C-alpha cells in the first residue's frame, strides 16, 4: 500500500512539472516581445559601437544569448562611458553592461545577484619604463577613463602615498591606451580583461601593479526591470555550473590568457554522487546540496583568481615544505628553471642551483622553518643549467598549522641584478673619474672635508698634495689625445701604488691630481719631514719613464703641498687655494716640490687689487657686454650669449677667468650677477622695437652662489617688470654646481621663474656634478655641450662618445642641445652628422660689442651671407 501511494505521488509530481512547463511555454509564446535599450562603449566586454543589429563583445554576446532564449529585442545605443552612466541614471537606456559594483552606484542603479565577471584593475606602461610597484608612478602621467571606478580608486591611492602624478581623463578606454602609445601619458589604467587585450594592440607592457578586485554586472535604472535582472541571474547561475555553456565559451573567446585551472575529476564525481543522492533525499538534503555546490564554485573561482593573480605578478613566488621541497611555484619560477610545474614540484634547490647558492638559500630557509623567523635577504644565485647568474631579493615567511606548528614557508624573490648594476654605474659616474677610475672632484672635496674634521677632533696633522703634469699639453699636441689619456691613466696607477690605505688619491680635472694624506702625527716638525719624504718619493716615481705605445716618455711633475694646519678654521676652499698656490710655485721652478708659505701671499695681494678695482667698477658701471651669436644648422642666428668684459684704467683688460673667481671668494658675485641681470633686461627692452634684434634670445650666466641667494628670484622678477620685456627672450645659463646644494630648493626657484617664461640652459654639461636622477627634475630647455668635448671631437673617441651620449640624453628629455666652442668647419659638420642642430663658437662668430652686431646684421640683411660670419678684427675669448 505504501508503495502504491509512493507511485501515485510520483505520478502527481510528474504531472505537475509537465503542467508548469506547458504553462511556461504558453506564457513565453504569447508574451509580447521585450525591447531593451543597451548602452555601448568601446570595451571588448561591452557591445561594439556601431553594431546596431546584434551587440558584440563578451557582455554583448552574453546578453544576446539570453535575449535569443527570452525573445528580447536589443537596441544598441552608442555612448561614451560617463554619458552611458548618466543615461542609465536618467532612464534613457534600459541596461548597461560591464559595470563594477560600488556602494555609490548601488544607490543609483539596480544589479543582479550573481556577478557576470570577477576582475581587477591593472597598470599598463609604455616600453622602457619597467615599473615595479606603485611608488614607481611618482612624477608620471596617468591616463584613465573618466568616471570609471579605476579613476576614483587610483586617485585616492596616489593621494594616500603622496605621489606627484599628472592625470589625463578620456571618454573612452581606447583613447587612454592610445595616449600612452603616442607618448602623451606614461601609463594607462584599466580592468585586466580590457587591458591585456589592448596592450597587445598598442604595444604596451603589463606591469606587476594590480589593485581593486571587483565584481562586474549588468546594471539597470533603480526600481526598473527587476524581471530582466532575475532572468539574467537565473542564466548566470545555470551557465556558470556548466563548462560547455555559452558563458564559458564567451569567457574563453574574450580572455587573453587561459581562464584558469580545470575542475578536478574528483569534484565532478562528488557532484554526480550528490546529484544521485538528491533524487532520494528530502528537501533538506536538496537544500544542503545547493549550499555545498555554491561553496564549491566559490572556492574554485577563488582558486582560479588566485592563480591568475600569482601568475601575473612579476616575481618568483613559491612554497616549500619542511623538507625544503617545492610544493607550489608560479609561472615565473617555471620560466626561471625552464621546466613545467610537474618537473619542479617535489624537488629541492640542489636540483636547480649550484652548491654555493644552495647552501645560502638553505641557510635562510632553515631560519624560517626551524625558528619561525621572517627572512629578507639578498641571494646571489647561479643556475646549474646554463650557469646563468641572478641577484634575488628574497622575502620568506613561515606557514603555520592551527596549532602554530610550521609546516612550510612561502617565499617571494625579485631579480634585482639590473637595478644593482644601474645603481653601481650611477654611483661610479657621480663620484669617480671615468678615465682614471680615481675619485672625482666631488668625492675629493667630500673626503677632504671629513679629513679636516678628523684633524680637529684627534689633533693628528694631515696634508693635501696637488700633483700637476707640467708638459701634458705638449704630450697632447705632439702624441695625440689618446696617448695623453693613456699617460693620465698611468699616473693614476702610480699614485695608487704610492699611497697608504688611509690616503685618498683623486683627479680634479685635466692633468691635475690630488693626494690627501691623513693621520701623520701631532708634532709639526715630524709631519713636515714625513710629507716631504713622501712627496720626494712620489716625484721620483712619477719621473720614471712611462711606456706610451712602446715609446718611453719622461714627464716633468710639479707637486704643491698645503698642511691641514695652514687653514685655521678647517676651510676646504682655503686649503685648496693654499695647495694651488704652492703648486704654482713648484711649476715656476719646474719638476719641483714646494710647500705653501708666506711668500705666496703675493698672489693674495694681486687678488686684493682686483677685488678693490672690481668694487669700483661695479659702482661706476664700467663693465660691459660682448655678444656671441648662437645659430641653428642653417646658420640662422636665433640668440646671443652675453659675455662679461672689463677694462680697468690701472689693471688693463682683466680676463673673466681672473675677476670672476675673485668675485666668488670676496662676495661680489651676487651684486655682479644682479648687475648682469639688470643690464640684460635693459638690452632686451631696447631690442623689442628693433626689427633686427627683436626675435633674438639673450643668454646670461648665473653662478651657483648668486642663484642660491635668497633675493635672486625676487630681483629677477623686479627686473622683468621694470623693463616690461617678454620673459621668454631671457635665458639663464646655470652650471651643474647647482646640484651640490639643496636640490628641492633649486627646482622650486627654477619652476617659479620658468612659469614666468624664463628659459634655463645647463652650461658646460658633462664636466660637473650632475646626477641623471636630478637632471630630469629640472625645468630645462637646453643642454650645452662643453667646449672641452667639442675641441677634441675629431681625434678623441671618448669625447665623441660623450657628445653622442649628451645628444641622446637631450633628445630623450626633449631638450635642445647646443654645442659651444665650435672652431672649425670639420667640427661643425661632424656635429651635424651626429644630430646636433644648434651651435656657438669662433667658427660662426667671435664675441663683439652690441653695436658691431647691429652693423653686421644690417650688412647681411637681404644678402646670401649667413648672419654668423666671423669678424676678422676681434680676438677676444669666449
UniProtKB/TrEMBL annotation:
This is Diguanylate cyclase. It comes from Pseudohongiella acticola. Residues 460-598 form the GGDEF domain. The lineage of its organism: Bacteria, Pseudomonadati, Pseudomonadota, Gammaproteobacteria, Pseudomonadales. SMART domains: EAL (SM00052), GGDEF (SM00267), PAS (SM00091), PBPb (SM00062). NCBIfam families: GGDEF, sensory_box. Residues 1-32 form the signal peptide. Residues 302-372 form the PAS domain. The chain crosses the membrane at residues 266-290. It holds the Pfam family PAS_4.
Amino acid at each position: 500500500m505504501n508503495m502504491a501511494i509512493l507511485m501515485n505521488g510520483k505520478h502527481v509530481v510528474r504531472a505537475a512539472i509537465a503542467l508548469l512547463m506547458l504553462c511556461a511555454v504558453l506564457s513565453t509564446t504569447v508574451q509580447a516581445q521585450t525591447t531593451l535599450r543597451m548602452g555601448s562603449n568601446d570595451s571588448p566586454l561591452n557591445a561594439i559601437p556601431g553594431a546596431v543589429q546584434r551587440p558584440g563583445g563578451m557582455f554583448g554576446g552574453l546578453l544576446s544569448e539570453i535575449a535569443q532564449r527570452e525573445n528580447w529585442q536589443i537596441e544598441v545605443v552608442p555612448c561614451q562611458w560617463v554619458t552611458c552612466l548618466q543615461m542609465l541614471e536618467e532612464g534613457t537606456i534600459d541596461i548597461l553592461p560591464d559595470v563594477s559594483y560600488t556602494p555609490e552606484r548601488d544607490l543609483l542603479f539596480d544589479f543582479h545577484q550573481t556577478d557576470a565577471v570577477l576582475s581587477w584593475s591593472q597598470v599598463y606602461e609604455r616600453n622602457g619604463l619597467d615599473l615595479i610597484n606603485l611608488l614607481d608612478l611618482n612624477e608620471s602621467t596617468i591616463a584613465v577613463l573618466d568616471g570609471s571606478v579605476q579613476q576614483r580608486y587610483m586617485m585616492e591611492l596616489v593621494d594616500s602615498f603622496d605621489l606627484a602624478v599628472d592625470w589625463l581623463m578620456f571618454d573612452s578606454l581606447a583613447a587612454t591606451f592610445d595616449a600612452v602609445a603616442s607618448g602623451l601619458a606614461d601609463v594607462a589604467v584599466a580592468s585586466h580583461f580590457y587591458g591585456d587585450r589592448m596592450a597587445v594592440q598598442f604595444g604596451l607592457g603589463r606591469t606587476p601593479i594590480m589593485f581593486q578586485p571587483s565584481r562586474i554586472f549588468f546594471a539597470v535604472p533603480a526600481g526598473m526591470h527587476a524581471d530582466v535582472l532575475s532572468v539574467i541571474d537565473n542564466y548566470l547561475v545555470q551557465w556558470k555550473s556548466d563548462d560547455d555553456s555559452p558563458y564559458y565559451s564567451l569567457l574563453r573567446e574574450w580572455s587573453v590568457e587561459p581562464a584558469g585551472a580545470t575542475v578536478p575529476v574528483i569534484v565532478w564525481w562528488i557532484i554526480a554522487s550528490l546529484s544521485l543522492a538528491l533524487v532520494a533525499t528530502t528537501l533538506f538534503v536538496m537544500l544542503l546540496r545547493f549550499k555545498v555546490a555554491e561553496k564549491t564554485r566559490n572556492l574554485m573561482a577563488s582558486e582560479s583568481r588566485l592563480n591568475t593573480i600569482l601568475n601575473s605578478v612579476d616575481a618568483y613566488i613559491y612554497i616549500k615544505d619542511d623538507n625544503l621541497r617545492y610544493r607550489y611555484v608560479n609561472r615565473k619560477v617555471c620560466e626561471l628553471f625552464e621546466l613545467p610545474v610537474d618537473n619542479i614540484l617535489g624537488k629541492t634547490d640542489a636540483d636547480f642551483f649550484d652548491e654555493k647558492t644552495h647552501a645560502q638559500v638553505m641557510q635562510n630557509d632553515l631560519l624560517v622553518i626551524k625558528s619561525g623567523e621572517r627572512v629578507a635577504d639578498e641571494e646571489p644565485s647561479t643556475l646549474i643549467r646554463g650557469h646563468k647568474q641572478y641577484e634575488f631579493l628574497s622575502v620568506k615567511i613561515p606557514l603555520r598549522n592551527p596549532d602554530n606548528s610550521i609546516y612550510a614557508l612561502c617565499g617571494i624573490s625579485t631579480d634585482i641584478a639590473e637595478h644593482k648594476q644601474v645603481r653601481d654605474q650611477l654611483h661610479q659616474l657621480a663620484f669617480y673619474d671615468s678615465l682614471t677610475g680615481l675619485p672625482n672632484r666631488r668625492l675629493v672635496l667630500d673626503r677632504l672635508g671629513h679629513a679636516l674634521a678628523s684633524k680637529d677632533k684627534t689633533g693628528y696633522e694631515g696634508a693635501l698634495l696637488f700633483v700637476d703634469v707640467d708638459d701634458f699639453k705638449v704630450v697632447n699636441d705632439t702624441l695625440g689625445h689618446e696617448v695623453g689619456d693613456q699617460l693620465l691613466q698611468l699616473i693614476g696607477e702610480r699614485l695608487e701604488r704610492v699611497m697608504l690605505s688611509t690616503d685618498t688619491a683623486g683627479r680634479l680635472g685635466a692633468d691635475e691630481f690630488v693626494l690627501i694624506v691623513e693621520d701623520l702625527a701631532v708634532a709639526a716638525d715630524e709631519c713636515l719631514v714625513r710629507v716631504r719624504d713622501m712627496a720626494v718619493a712620489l716625484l721620483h716615481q712619477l719621473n720614471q719613464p712611462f711606456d706610451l705605445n712602446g715609446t718611453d716618455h719622461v714627464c716633468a711633475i710639479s707637486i704643491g703641498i698645503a698642511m691641514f694646519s695652514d687653514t685655521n678654521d678647517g676651510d676646504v676652499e682655503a686649503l685648496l687655494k693654499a695647495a694651488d698656490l704652492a703648486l704654482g710655485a713648484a711649476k715656476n721652478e719646474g719638476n719641483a716640490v714646494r710647500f705653501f708659505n708666506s711668500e705666496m701671499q703675493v698672489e693674495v695681494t694681486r687678488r686684493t687689487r682686483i677685488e678693490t678695482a672690481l668694487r669700483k667698477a661695479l659702482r661706476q658701471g664700467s663693465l660691459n657686454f660682448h655678444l656671441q651669436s648662437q645659430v641653428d644648422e642653417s646658420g640662422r642666428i636665433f640668440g646671443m650669449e652675453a659675455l662679461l668684459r672689463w677694462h680697468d684704467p690701472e689693471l688693463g683688460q682683466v680676463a673673466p677667468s681672473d675677476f670672476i673667481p675673485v668675485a666668488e671668494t670676496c662676495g661680489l658675485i651676487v651684486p655682479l650677477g644682479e648687475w648682469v641681470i639688470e643690464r640684460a633686461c635693459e638690452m632686451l627692452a631696447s631690442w623689442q622695437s628693433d626689427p633686427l634684434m627683436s626675435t633674438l634670445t639673450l643668454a646670461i650666466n648665473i653662478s651657483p652662489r648668486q642663484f642660491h641667494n635668497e633675493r635672486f628670484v625676487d630681483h629677477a622678477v623686479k627686473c622683468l617688470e621694470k623693463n616690461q620685456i617678454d620673459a621668454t627672450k631671457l635665458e639663464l645659463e646655470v652650471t651643474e654646481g647647482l646640484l651640490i646644494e639643496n636640490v628641492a630648493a633649486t627646482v622650486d626657484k627654477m619652476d617659479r621663474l620658468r612659469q614666468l617664461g624664463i628659459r634655463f640652459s645647463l652650461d658646460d654639461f658633462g664636466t660637473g656634478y650632475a646626477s641623471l636622477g636630478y637632471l630630469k627634475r629640472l625645468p630645462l630647455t637646453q643642454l650645452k655641450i662643453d667646449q672641452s668635448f667639442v675641441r677634441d671631437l675629431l681625434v678623441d673617441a671618448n669625447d665623441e662618445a660623450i657628445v653622442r651620449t649628451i645628444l641622446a640624453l637631450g633628445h630623450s628629455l626633449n631638450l635642445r642641445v647646443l654645442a659651444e666652442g665650435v672652431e672649425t668647419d670639420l667640427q661643425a659638420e661632424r656635429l651635424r652628422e651626429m644630430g646636433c642642430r644648434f651651435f656657438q663658437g669662433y667658427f660662426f662668430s667671435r664675441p663683439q660689442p652690441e653695436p658691431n652686431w647691429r652693423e653686421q646684421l644690417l650688412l647681411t640683411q637681404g644678402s646670401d651671407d649667413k648672419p654668423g660670419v666671423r669678424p676678422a678684427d676681434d680676438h677676444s675669448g669666449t
